[in-house]
Design brief:
Elements (H helix, E strand, L loop, with lengths): L2 H34 L2 H49 L5 H27 L6 H25 L5 H22 L31 H29 L7 H24 L2 H22 L2 H29 L5 H32 L5 H19 L1 H19 L8 H12 L1
């Protein structure tokens, strides 16, 4: 089997198993804590996973430089598996929060490692690799949500034992199929990379990156508002359905629509407009959740909230892959993960607080109205800057190439890379 093909099988198989395991446990635990404690404490536990992921951002490059990408993925996944296994043998929000931190730290090391493998592929192979990665994740999401519905009423010890088995599978498949060499992360010029570095999220040195990374953080804030808020919503307003049932709808929708819909929009619009369409879909979804609050409205919201995942996420990933020279990819992964983790961390905590607040002030669905307002604002920002942002591709790539000329990088390489990737999307 070709080395890249083997690595792709390992990466996609790993993310599939990881998503199955994740979507088994967190909707059930969030709904359980929302009922026994409060939305706030449910949000705190989920927030701690992203505190761990955020901290891992500052360690990722140093770990990858010492262990290699494959070793980092193995260590991160093993830590996740152990922490998840212990979840079933503990009780109380403080213990859950501590273990959630280690789950997040492990994910913060393994997940950017998987993406680092993909962006290390030849440019012509990257779009298909990212598409396969995204598809595998959605298959895992759908399968995990279905299994989570089946296991919703079992003891948490049994639930987390099943999740532990999936993450052990994740650990084994990535270790077996990702080659030991060929994807190693090493400091340029043999320079030693510190284990902990606060500069890890400053790896993108391209004009216009700050706006896109802040928008990315806002998107993940909204995404986690949905992920944490919808199980709480289901337990309160649609208790006859399993807490994970909305993820059946979103998972299946993304499986069917991901490739054709993104390809359709990417051919006709620049990245700013594509991201705006995704955020507009999320705006409609949040309004549906807030105004309806019944089963049919949940279905409507789930069918439109997926536009964010379908349009925003791959557009942002490909934008980064086109723009960043290969020797900066490890820092780029750290930068992406920092902003994603920051948005997820604040979004998960805010979801629980806003849910409790909307109930205490007597405004049913008020938490979703706040999310809709933010999503609409972000969509307008994308649209207002789309002309300059879309034209920046050629200007910024040339700038990046010129800056890299001293390192032996041709100024035209970035432009050629962009054109090649665009042809293959």
């Amino acid at each position: 089997m070709k080395e890249n093909t083997r690595a792709l099988v390992g990466v996609t198989g790993g993310i599939l198993l990881a998503n199955v395991g994740s979507y088994i446990w967190f909707p059930v635990l969030v709904a359980t804590l929302g009922g026994t404690d409060s939305g706030f404490w449910a949000g705190v536990v989920m927030c701690m996973t992203y505190v761990g992921r955020l901290l891992a951002t500052f360690f990722y490059e140093g770990i990858a430089a010492r262990t290699g990408v494959r070793g980092g993925v193995f260590l991160g996944t093993a830590l996740e598996a152990v922490a998840l296994g212990l979840m079933g043998f503990t009780d109380g929000v403080l213990a859950y929060s501590l273990l959630a931190f280690f789950i997040g730290f492990g994910s913060g090391v393994s997940f950017p490692g998987l993406k680092n493998v993909l962006v290390s592929f030849p440019e012509a192979e990257r779009p298909k690799a990212f598409s396969a990665f995204q598809m595998a994740g959605q298959v895992g999401l759908f399968g995990g949500a279905l299994l989570g519905g089946v296991l919703a009423d079992v003891e948490l010890r049994t639930l987390f034992s099943v999740v532990f088995a999936f993450f052990i599978g994740f650990c084994l498949i990535t270790s077996a199929l990702i080659p030991r060499g060929g994807f190693e992360s090493a400091a340029a010029g043999g320079e030693r990379v510190p284990l902990f570095s606060l500069s890890a999220f400053k790896g993108i040195e391209v004009r216009g990156a700050t706006r896109y990374f802040l928008l990315s953080a806002a998107f993940w804030f909204l995404s986690l508002g949905f992920v944490v808020g919808i199980p709480l919503h289901m337990a309160e307003y649609v208790p006859q359905w399993a807490p994970s049932s909305p993820f059946w709808i979103t998972g299946l929708s993304i499986l069917v629509l991901q490739y054709p819909l993104f390809k359709l929009f990417d051919k006709r619009f620049g990245p700013g407009a594509v991201m705006a369409f995704g955020l507009a879909g999320m705006t409609v979804a949040f309004l549906a959740f807030g105004a309806g609050r019944t089963g049919p409205w949940v279905v409507v919201g789930c069918l439109t909230v997926v536009l964010g995942e379908i349009l925003f996420v791959p557009s942002f990933d490909l934008w980064i892959a086109r723009r960043v020279p290969e020797h900066r990819l490890a820092k780029a992964m750290g930068a992406m993960h920092f902003f994603r983790s920051a948005g997820n961390m604040v979004g998960s905590l805010a979801a629980g607080i806003l849910f409790d607040l909307s109930r205490s002030v007597g405004i049913a669905g008020g938490n979703w109205y706040v999310a809709a307002l933010l999503a609409a604002g972000c969509a307008l920002i994308c649209l207002s800057g789309r002309d300059s942002a879309d034209s920046e591709d050629s200007v910024d790539t040339a700038d990046t190439g010129a800056a890299d000329a001293s390192d032996g990088t041709e100024a035209t390489a970035g432009t050629a890379k962009e054109e090649k990737v665009t042809e293959n999307v």
